[in-house]
Design a protein that fits this description.
Elements: H1 3-6, H2 8-22, H3 27-40, H4 44-56, H5 61-66, H6 79-92, H7 101-110, H8 113-135, H9 146-150
Helix pairs in contact: 2-8, 3-4, 3-6, 3-8, 6-7, 6-8
Length: 151
């Protein structure tokens, strides 16, 4: 399914949410969050896209590859990044029906309230994209980051 063509208003609305959500956040952090949620949700298209976008944002191959095992690779990430990654997992996998208080508190310690609100919106938005990508079987391997298209 070509979602943008068959549901253009929905597609535009999610794009708008994504643009608004990431304002004021570090682009590399945003890509780590999007990539981690995509790994959890098994969205190959989004994993392909956000690993490429992370590289374009200056992220290292090593940190991208180790993201799936971040708990064993903590020394590669800052405390702020770890708080964002942990929050991403808690918001993405609501097995217990809520984000644990200690996870939220760690994120709140590293992000100002407005920044935390933006981060939560980024996490929610990538989960929307992941569900669209997985449900419609979007095929990975064809994405080129916008910066690479200009070069």
């Amino acid at each position: 399914m070509q979602y943008a063509k068959v549901a253009p208003e929905v597609y535009k609305a999610v794009i708008g949410l994504e643009i608004a959500a990431k304002k004021g956040l570090d682009p590399s952090l945003v890509e780590l969050v999007k990539l981690r949620a995509s790994q959890i949700n098994h969205c190959a298209f989004c994993m392909d896209m956000h690993s490429k976008d992370a590289l374009a944002a200056g992220e290292s191959v090593e940190r991208i590859l180790l993201l799936g095992a971040w708990e064993e690779s903590r020394h590669f990430y800052t405390e702020k990044e770890l708080a964002a990654i942990e929050l991403t997992e808690a918001v993405t996998v609501l097995t217990d029906g809520f984000v644990p208080d200690e996870v939220y508190a760690r994120a709140a310690k590293h992000f100002e309230e407005a920044e935390l609100a933006q981060l939560i919106a980024v996490i929610a938005t990538i989960n929307v994209w992941n569900r669209i990508g997985v449900t419609t079987r979007m095929t990975p391997g064809h994405y080129t980051p916008p910066a690479a298209k200009k070069a």
